[in-house]
Amino acid sequence: MSRRDNYGGINVDWMTFMLYIALIIVGWMMIYAVGYNDNNSGSVFDLSSNIGKQTLFIGASFIVLFLASIIDWKFWRTFAYPIFGFSILLLIGVLIIGVKIKGATSWYRLPGGFTLQPAEFAKFATNIALAAFLSTYNTNIKTFRHQLVAFGIFLLPMFLILLQPDAGSALVFFSFLIMLYREGLSPNFYIVGFVAALLLILGLVFDPLSILLGLIMVSTLILMLNLKNKIYWMISFAVLLAASIFVLAQKYFYPILIINSSIFLIFALLLWQQRKSGLVLRLFALLVLGGLISFSANYSFNNLLKPHQQDRMNVWLQPSKCDPQGSLYNVIQSKMTIGSGGLEGKGYLQGTMTKLNYVPEQSTDFIFCVIGEEQGFIGSFAVIGLIALLLYRILILAERQRSDFSRHYAYGVAGIIFVHSFINIGMTMGLVPIIGIPLPFISYGGSSILGFTLLIGVLLKLDSNRFTA
What's the half-sphere exposure (Cβ side, CA atoms, 13 Å) at 35? Predict the structure, then answer.
């Protein structure tokens, strides 16, 4: 049911709460499966094992959930900026006194062998700070000044996390663009961002001059469509395209580049005379910026990135160039493990590839492989379905809020969970680069589960008071 019920004096959306509990249970069971073997199953309270620590983390997360339920909902709006400032101090501090694990200085060392990753809590702090800023009465996200502040709020922690370096956690901060879009940020930002990202990716794979030629031909087509006698010009473009393909097949690249550039300039002058200078200027900007982005991406990839960083990108974009026993090993093993589960899976605790530790980081980054092997396609689909239902439920909660702050915050929560889930599941299948971020509520890790629980706990508290907001 979706209605608010009263339990122990606390109003709570039980559907969201039960989806959260279901994902926590799935995660706990999968982490137990990773460490399980027929000779020694281990104790779920043994703090020397991952399952023992995760049991402790889950207990701590319930405490966080309880604290979030008893703290006045106005506290988060009132102290949003101080909390954000404290999270920034933690991110700066970890660069100075943090411990380096797997090449990144992202953790504080705590007593008892535990660690704390401030980036996980910075996501929550950034969410409430951005929500507080957007809900201020004089904030207008359509003005440049307020856009600058909004971008600065999530780009600052993102920059500090990149210094660690932790590209995966930093990338998640782009999820706040979902919140900004809902609140009225111009779609032009997203169109420009998408085109820039596409050109950046293409620049990593193809020759920049080839990309520039493609941009010139697309721009020429756009110019032709805006001229009079469109049919005549379209026939001309088809002839030009056929001639270009023929010449390129003969490996005469530069002549065809010069010819296409000349034709583009001719049509640009014709449109300029027809007083369509705005379109011409935008296309010129596309060519200049597109060329700069693709050339910069290609140069950076070949001259600035270290070999292991190049390998990570090639695993995603050009796997044929990677060593199956080296950089490509994780993705190959991940796909094999998921595929071995078939439709129904091998059964809980029966994952042979899981027991033999074929895939590294099975408890954290690649825990979805365990789900795929033991539960098969049906189980994998069910887990994805639970995450999708949680996201859908959060969006329902967001839209029914009377408080702007609560609505902004809810969209931020949905964005964070969506980006985490998409990247984590995608990288196990080779759809996105392997950048190492946890699957929400399921992957092993204290900072992760506490951070996501805090996000959900505050959301439930805000929703329970939506009629008094």
Answer: 21
**Hey, is 396 helix, strand or coil?**
helix
Spatial neighbors of 198 by CB under 8 A, at least 6 apart, are none
| Under 8 Å between Cβ of 263 and 240 | yes
Which two tokens mark 322?
């990677």
Name the nearest CA neighbour of 30 among 420, 362, 336, 365: 362
| pTM (two decimals) | 0.88
Mind listing the pLDDT tens digit for each residue in 418-446?
Answer: 999 999 999 888 888 888 889 999 999 99
Residue 334: name the closest of 364, 285, 372 by CA.
372
Position 80 scores a pLDDT of: 95
Going through 248-339 in order, the beta strands assigned E by DSSP cover: none
**Residues 30, 349: Cα–Cα separation, whole Å:** 9
Cα first-last separation, the chain: 23
Q: 20, 2, 89, 15: which is closest to 417 by C-alpha? A: 20
Read off the tokens for 317: 């974009």
Q: Is the pLDDT of residue 161 over 50?
A: yes
> Which residue type does 312 have?
R
Whole-Å CA distances, 203 to 199, 290, 301, 307, 445? 6, 10, 9, 17, 36
Distance CA 453, CA 413 (A): 11
> Rounded CA gap, 54 and 140, in Å?
43
* CA 307 – CA 224 distance, rounded (Å): 44
Based on its alpha-carbon atoms, the radius of gyration of the chain, rounded to whole angstroms, reads: 26
- Residue 455's identity, in one-letter code, is L
Task: Give Cβ neighbours of residue 96 (< 8 Å, ≥ 6 apart).
Answer: none
- The predicted structure's pLDDT at residue 231: 66
Strands 115-116 and 104-109: antiparallel
d(CA 206, CA 317): 11
Distance CA 365, CA 383 (A): 16
The four Cα atoms 6, 8, 9, 15 give a dihedral, to 10 degrees, of: -40
SS3 41: coil
Angstrom distance (rounded) from CA 306 to CA 323: 16
Q: CB burial class (10 A; 0-12, 13-18, 19+) of residue 389?
A: middle
- What is the DSSP track for 138-154? T--TTSHHHHHHHHHHH
Burial of 249 (0-12, 13-18, 19+ CB in 10 A): exposed
**Single-letter amino acid, residue 150:** A
Alpha helices in 341-469 (DSSP H): 352-355, 367-399, 404-428, 446-464
The whole-angstrom separation of Cα 444 and Cα 31 is: 7
What would the two tokens of residue 72 be? 């006045």
Per-residue pLDDT reduced to its tens digit, 248-262: 655 666 777 787 788
